[in-house]
Amino acid sequence: MSLSRYFLILISLSFFQSSAFAYITVLGKGDASLCYQAAKFGYSNRSSLQHCFSAIDDVTITKRNLFATYVNVGIIYNNSKKPDEAIKFLNKGLENDLTKSESLLSLGNSSYLKRNYKKALEYYDKSAEEGLKEISAVYFNKGLVYERLNNIDLAVEYYKKALNLKPKYSEYFEKRARLMNANDWDK
Predict the structure, then answer these.
(1) DSSP the chain
(2) What is the model's pTM?
(3) Which domains does the chain have, with CATH numbers?
(4) Closest CA to 104 of 126, 81, 74
(5) Which residue, 174, 179, 187, 177, is CA-closest to 2?
(6) How far apart are CA 20 and CA 30, in angstroms?
(7) How far apart are CA 137 and CA 126, in angstroms?
(8) Are residues 164 and 138 in contact, defined by beta-carbon separation less than 8 angstroms?
(9) pLDDT band at 46 (very low <50, low <70, confident <90, very high)
(10) Which residues of 160-170 are buried (b: 16+ CB within 10 A; e: fewer)?
(11) Torsion sign (Cα): 75, 80, 85, 87
């Protein structure tokens, strides 16, 4: 694989990762906030996780920020392509009503990474039922699942729903189209 092809695929994947995960905002400063930033920007490095673990160990962390940090750790592990590790933390996020919908969305992403597409769809639907604020992420992710399942009609339907709510997703599709036209898109 050429270096330019590899670079273009990484750009495309990094856009997908930071757009399709519902990271949870942490208020205030400190390690919990740094953990949130890492999840938000699609980081997957060890130092990002260290901030998260320091926040979890902090006895002064609020309950809300603690559960948000669990979800953000799960997102970082998903970014690292370690869905089994992510699931451990995302399940903790299910224990709090304020983080439940985001945990479910990210559990869907873990299932997607594990190629359990049926389970991914179930989690995405549950996250919507629980009131996920970024419903466009549900539609976008369901489009990805249906595309993997070769149900292009449903994939397009969900992609359109996502685009109607969040036009920024068009950047992903434009990058993807350029890669496909250059035969640099690995499905």
Answers:
(1) --HHHHHHHHHHHHHHHHHHS------SSSHHHHHHHHHHTT---HHHHHHHHHHHH-TT--HHHHHHHHHHHHHHHHHTT-HHHHHHHHHHHTTSTTTHHHHHHHHHHHHHHTT-HHHHHHHHHHHHHTT-S-HHHHHHHHHHHHHHTT-HHHHHHHHHHHHHH-TTHHHHHHHHHHHHHTT----
(2) 0.80
(3) 17-181 (1.25.40.10)
(4) 126
(5) 179
(6) 25
(7) 13
(8) no
(9) confident
(10) ebbbebbeebe
(11) positive
Residue 96 has a CB neighbour count (10 Å cut-off) of 16
Q: Which residue has the tokens 């330019």?
A: 4
Residues contacting residue 115 through CB under 8 Å, at least 6 positions apart: 148
pLDDT, tens digit, 9 for 90 and up, residues 24-34: 565 556 888 88
